[in-house]
UniProtKB/TrEMBL annotation:
Signal peptide: 1-19
Source organism per UniProt: Chironomus riparius
Residue ranges crossing the lipid bilayer per the database entry: 409-428
Pfam family, one: LRR_8
Keywords: Leucine-rich repeat, Membrane, Repeat, Signal, Transmembrane, Transmembrane helix
Protein name as annotated: Uncharacterized protein
Top-level taxonomic group: Eukaryota
Amino acid sequence: MFCLQIFIGSLILICSTFCQNCERNPNNASMCTFSGIQRSMQMDELTDSNPDEIKRIKFVNSFINRIPIKLTEIYKNLVDLDVSNSLVCVLRDQYFKGGKLQKLNASGNVISYLESNINNVLQNLEVLDLSRNRIQVLEDNVFYYFTKLKYLNLSHNEIKKLPANFTSYTDNVNVLDLGNNQISSLAGDFSSKNSRSNAVNLSNNLLVSIDPMSFKNLFRLNINFNKLEKIINFQGTNIKELLICGNSLQLLIINKQLVILDVSYNNGNSLEIDFGSESALECLKLSNLKLFDYTDILANISKLNNLMHLDLSMSNLTTFDFDNNMLPKSIKVLNLMNTQLKVLKNFKNILTAAPNLKEIILNGNFLKDKELWDISKKFGINVTGLEITDETITEEIKTKTILFSDHNIIIIVAVSMNILLFIINLYLTATLHA
Ligand SMILES: *[C@@H]1O[C@H](CO)[C@@H](O)[C@H](O)[C@H]1NC(C)=O
Ligand SMILES: *[C@@H]1O[C@H](CO)[C@@H](O)[C@H](O)[C@H]1NC(C)=O
Ligand SMILES: *[C@@H]1O[C@H](CO)[C@@H](O)[C@H](O)[C@H]1NC(C)=O
Ligand SMILES: *[C@@H]1O[C@H](CO)[C@@H](O)[C@H](O)[C@H]1NC(C)=O
Ligand SMILES: *[C@@H]1O[C@H](CO)[C@@H](O)[C@H](O)[C@H]1NC(C)=O
Ligand SMILES: *[C@@H]1O[C@H](CO)[C@@H](O)[C@H](O)[C@H]1NC(C)=O
Ligand SMILES: *[C@@H]1O[C@H](CO)[C@@H](O)[C@H](O)[C@H]1NC(C)=O
Ligand SMILES: *[C@@H]1O[C@H](CO)[C@@H](O)[C@H](O)[C@H]1NC(C)=O
């Protein structure tokens, strides 16, 4: 019996390395995992007793260099294929013939080229993740039939140029990630047809200029770390969130619908932002700016009637005057972490300056003012980063108490010594007299 168990055990062990059985998910019979496939040869021998049931296949810890040729013929109902983190170098139409694939994840492979004929067989695709590959060339009509595509991730590739008519073929794509490529120019309208959460990421590319109108109806645009300079005008667009860090802007003109703006790490020493009138801005991040002069930009910020969160951390701001650098009354959180601040002027007027302030972050400054602590306690503002804290105050009290009790002991000892000396004295006097 024992022998038989060992025998069956080793058979299972051998089988799992050679037969490539589909490992059913115990909670979901339609999901199947193939693990540890090291060679392409093994792949065309994928087996399963009931392939029609399988909707989702995932390869884990595998180093396959191509997708098994008959995969979609064997698994006719496959809708979701995950071949991420393998060594696949090309996507061919014959892999997907007759398939109904809706989601394909080929992230983290070594694909360098996308042939235009794959779009004939991937017409049902809604999610395509090709991030972290080596794609350099996208053939002109490669996305022609991808009419159902909603999510397209092409980030972390080597794309220099988008194919002609790219934006008209990707009209339904709500989430488009083109970050970390080498794109230097754009054409077409990137807004998708029908979404309120439409997001485009073009961060870490080589864009020198953009036409904001090509993002007219986006919800979120991330264009961080490009080479944008001079003047950019977003007026007339409906963008709600704009991330435009790490460029060399001189003048940014925003649209009134904008709610979140991040302009951190812009490396010019003068930056002007025209917020227009009646701006909806609630969150403004100006972290890591090194401006020659903050006077005018702070004056413009003071007019933002809806602003709740202002981040000026890591800037080279040296003073902040609560009387003169008027904050909008709506402000709730002020982040002044790691600045060059040595003094917060007129902090005692904070309640008039910013009646809604809940938190002020002051870590990494040169401020040690006990007055700040007292005032913030008084008004219930959360001050983080001051050297004085509740604990230091308690420590102070404790130290005093200890000193006091030491003192007590000394008094007690001194008094007792005196009494003792008095008794000795009495005794000595008595014996001497006797
Ligand atoms: C099984 O997995 C599929 C995805 O392949 C999913 O659509 C379905 O909801 C899952 N069913 C259960 C019961 O979790
Ligand atoms: C694709 O796979 C990678 C790695 O397994 C994962 O991080 C990523 O979220 C997946 N993409 C999608 C769209 O599910
Ligand atoms: C795209 O893929 C990259 C790398 O896999 C990932 O970091 C990023 O979050 C993805 N983008 C979106 C919008 O999901
Ligand atoms: C782009 O679209 C126009 C019409 O909208 C068409 O004339 C042209 O051939 C297309 N170009 C490519 C390369 O598909
Ligand atoms: C692009 O931006 C989106 C949201 O702003 C984010 O989820 C995604 O991870 C970013 N992708 C890269 C490659 O940074
Ligand atoms: C302040 O706003 C005005 C327009 O309201 C703009 O012309 C000017 O450049 C802005 N200044 C700064 C320093 O942002
Ligand atoms: C802040 O940095 C800029 C650029 O390096 C410099 O021109 C300016 O003088 C600095 N201001 C202060 C107060 O250090
Ligand atoms: C104060 O702010 C810090 C940092 O944001 C947070 O961890 C802490 O919970 C806040 N304390 C109170 C009393 O709000």
